[in-house]
Design brief:
The protein is of the alpha/beta class and 192 residues long. The protein contains four helices and ten strands; from the N terminus they run E-E-H-E-H-E-E-H-E-H-E-E-E-E. The two termini are 13 Å apart. Strands 1, 2, 3, 4, 5, 6, 7, 8, 9 and 10 form a ten-stranded mixed sheet that branches. It is globular. Helices cover 18% and strands 29% of the residues.
């Protein structure tokens, strides 16, 4: 059984964004991860640490279309180039996939994700993709959260957590750290 791990930057009120803002993050505070906060390198070390466990990447369609053309050519993301990638989308076509960014498979449903999870292999990390993360969490498919929580309340933006009326979900703290700029690293296992 493969683990599905969500990794992301989170405001204290549950909003997720990419480090610099960008398409799909048009709320007035978009890009908050890199604004108004002292940069502390060790607060971002989690991103490098994750590479040792990452055997594949998963995205929703919008995050894939935002990340793929940028990360393919980015030296900061060179270690992701040849990793297998999965895009969960009912409408994306094979001709819309980005060339030169490793093998990419389109999954059409949550059931396809569940089947992938039951297969052999290591952890699959989900970057961005808040809507996908909510859907997979509601389906009981997420196994772990790797969160960098920033000391900011935004009140607008994409929420990581579902507002669906569902059963309580317990998490077990695996690791945590606090940094001088107020960022918290929180790694939680989902209790199944």
């Amino acid at each position: 059984m493969r683990d599905l791990v969500y990794t992301g930057f989170l405001s204290l009120d549950g909003v997720v964004d990419s480090p610099g803002g960008g398409p799909g993050e048009e709320h007035r505070s978009g890009g908050w991860v890199v604004k108004d906060l002292e940069f502390v390198p060790e607060a971002f070390a989690l991103k490098g640490e994750e590479l040792a466990d990452t055997t594949a990447l998963m995205f929703g369609r919008r995050s894939y279309q935002a990340f793929a053309p940028v990360w393919r050519d980015s030296d900061d993301h060179a270690d992701y180039r040849e990793l297998p990638k999965y895009v969960v989308s009912s409408g994306l076509t094979d001709d819309a996939l980005v060339d030169g960014w490793g093998p990419t498979t389109i999954l059409r449903s949550t059931e396809d994700v569940a089947a992938l999870k039951r297969g052999e292999g290591g952890a699959i990390f989900i970057h961005g993709s808040a809507e996908l993360a909510r859907r997979l969490s509601d389906a009981g498919l997420l196994d772990r959260y790797h969160l960098l929580v920033f000391p900011v309340l935004l009140g607008a933006g994409k929420s990581l957590f579902s507002a669906a009326d569902r059963d309580k979900q317990m998490l077990r703290l695996r690791e945590s750290a606090a940094y001088p700029n107020g960022v918290l690293k929180l790694i939680y296992d989902v209790v199944h």
